[in-house]
Write a structure and sequence with these properties.
Elements (H helix, E strand, L loop, with lengths): L1 E3 L17 E10 L14 E5 L2 E2 L2 E5 L6 E8 L8 H15 L5 E7 L3 E8 L2 H9 L6 H6 L7 H12 L6 E8 L10 H10 L3 E6 L6 H11 L3 E3 L6 H12 L3 E5 L9 E9 L5 E3 L3 E4 L2
Parallel strand pairs: 6-7, 6-9, 9-10, 10-11
Antiparallel strand pairs: 1-2, 2-12, 2-14, 3-4, 3-13, 5-12, 7-8, 13-15
Helix pairs in contact: 1-2, 1-7, 4-5, 5-6
Length: about 290
Amino acid sequence: MAAALCGIARAQDTPTFSADVKVVNVLATVRNKTGALVGSLGKDDFLLSEEGRPQTIRYFSRETNLPLTLGLMVDTSGSQRHVLDAERGASLHFLDRVIRPMDKVFIMQFDTVVQMRQELTSSIGKLDDALAYVDTETVRQVRAREGGGTLLYDAIVRAAYDVMRKQTGRKALIVLSDGVDYGSENTLQDALDTAQRADTLIYSILYGGTEGKGILERLSEESGGSFFEVSKKHPVDEVFDILQEELRNQYSLGYVSDKPVTLSGFRKIQLTAKQKGLAVQARHQYWAQR
């Protein structure tokens, strides 16, 4: 999404603009044909277009010094009861390795209701304590709430709107779920639109069942994040290791659209690598705010 100049990454070649210039920020990950991350590209190795029109990349960085804001979103509906212990352990190990003093994390769980378990913090101790309380609903709670539910879409909307849109730098939601939504007031498109307006990537981790696989794949692919599936071959600890590597090998690009915004709306963008055989993972649109 467009953001003011003062909130973007420091670039290798930094032109000077007035503070009211709108800069579109794009985070990207690049992989080669074997699936290995490519972290050695420069600004001139990319092609960027908006609505089919070539754009000039004004800002570029392949460093991960940008502050990172993460939201750990844990599905605690009954279908996830048998995997929660493994998720808690892997999540804490991941956060302990990734989070730096400049970074912030919040923890949210969702089932019949959406609950913020830990507000934004850089404290691993607070995150550890909060994870201990992330658990499935009791039978009494389910009865009191008149049945079970899995408010996946509502949780993403709340996290993106209430938290992420107020943050700057790199922003991502990590969703651990089977991908099945039951009972949300918001739709899948609402979840995607709100995340994209907040400049937030969604990394989905499918854990248990395959019914919601397509949902999680779409959330990740359209927001510019990645989809992972936990299996015997790829346990949750390994998935978090891959995710950690991705977060440490992101490119940050920024441009000023050649077309002034006269009417707010989504604009399609396409980022590719000039070199053949490289796959660029980035969002496909941004919200142009008048």
